[in-house]
Structure formats: C-alpha cells, structure tokens
Amino acid sequence: MEEPQHRIRAVYSESTITVYQAYAPEIGLPAVQEGRFPAAWKRDRMTWIKPSFLWMMYRCGWGAKEGQETVLAVEISRDGFEWALTNACLSNYARGTHPDRATWQRQLKRAPARVQWDPERDLQLQSRPYRSLQLGLSGEASRRYADEWTIAIRDVTPLAHEIRAMVKGGELDSATRLLPEERPYPVGDELLAHLRE
C-alpha cells in the first residue's frame, strides 16, 4: 500500500508518544539526568519536536553537528501532543486550507504551535517521496511541553552513533533492525484537516 503524503509515524503507547530533539551536552545531559528540561532550557523560545527518528538524524547529522551532539528521545503525553496539533497552524500558506494569506498570517501569529511537513528520510538520509511531521512549540505550548507533557527523557546518542556506523559499513539490514519501530499514529482526519499543505 502506498504511503500517504501526510502521515504522522511515531513510537507511541496508549498514553505517550516519543519525539526527538538534539541539544548541546550542557542542555541535553542535565535533561536526561533530571528527566526534565533544566532551567537553562529557554521556555520562551520556539522548540521543534520530531516524531521521526531518521528525520532527526538528518537534522542533527547523527548527533555530529555542533550544538546537537546529544540526541534525546522525549516521551510526552499524547494528550499534550494532540492539544498542540489542535492548536497548531501550518508554517506556510496553503491555498485551500486557508481562506487567504492574511487569514493564515493572523492564525500563525496567534497559534502556540506550528506544523511543517518535510520529506521523510531513509537510512542514507535521502529524501523519501512522503512527508514527516515537525511540530514547533512556542509560548504556552513550549512551557507545557517542558513542564507538563514530558514524562521521560532518554539519551539515544549511542544508538544514533551505532546505526550510523552500520550504515557507513554497508550493514543496512542490521541498521534497520535497530531503528525505533515507528507506526502510523492514530489521529483522526479532522485533527489534521487544518494542517494539510
């Protein structure tokens, strides 16, 4: 069956969903130790969370990019994640989804969350023909993410490095077996209707 153009794929349980972020060690390591984002983590800035492990690997270069050396798997409540989707606006204007550009700009300004659909990635970090969700959180959403929705934070940097080494060594089957098992996230069409490009 062909993969839909816009679908959220993630590791999730009945009550949580795992998203990925990458930080410098001075933010990432205390977050892992405390299971919470430290005071140094700026709650007034926009933060982007990604349910796709491979998209995060593309973004942070397998944890090798400066300032993104610590890759975190952040388990958050599904209620919080879905609140963010409900209150999100597309980060770009989409004819047919928004009545006009001015309405979209007003919605974007007010929205505590924004959605971008970027090409999903394969093990070589090449574009796939379908999209992966990025969810930007600011203001209320960013604060709630850090202080209410976060259940657990794990350091998956060693996993990123292990998979990268296998890919470089041509061991793609072994690398695939180590990937987090992401499944289509059960979200209704009505929840994503205002977030389609």
How does this structure look, described?
The chain has helices at 25-34, 53-60, 78-86, 101-110, 139-149, 157-168, 172-178, 189-192, and strands at 9-10, 16-23, 47-49, 70-77, 88-90, 113-121, 127-137, 150-155, 183-184. The chain has 197 residues and is an alpha+beta fold. Strands 3-7-6-5 form a 4-stranded mixed β-sheet. It has a 3-stranded antiparallel β-sheet with strand order 2-4-8. Strands 1-9 form a two-stranded antiparallel sheet. Helix 3 runs antiparallel to helix 5 (139-149) and helix 6 runs antiparallel to helix 7. The radius of gyration is 17 Å and the shape is globular. The model has no long low-confidence stretch (mean pLDDT 92).
Summary?
With 197 residues, the protein is of the alpha+beta class.
Number of strands: 9
Termini separation (Å)? 22 Å
What class would the helix/strand composition place it in? alpha+beta
Give the DSSP E fraction (strand runs of 2 or more residues): 25-35%
- Fraction of residues in H or I helices: 25-40%
- Order of SSEs: EEHEHEHEHEEHEHHEH
> Looking at the structure, what is the overall shape?
globular
Put simply, the count of helices is 8
Outline the low-pLDDT stretches: none
pLDDT averaged residue by residue? 92
Major sheet description: 4 strands, mixed
Radius of gyration: 17 Å
Sequence of strands across the biggest β-sheet:
3-7-6-5
List keywords for this structure.
globular, alpha+beta, 197 residues, four-stranded mixed sheet
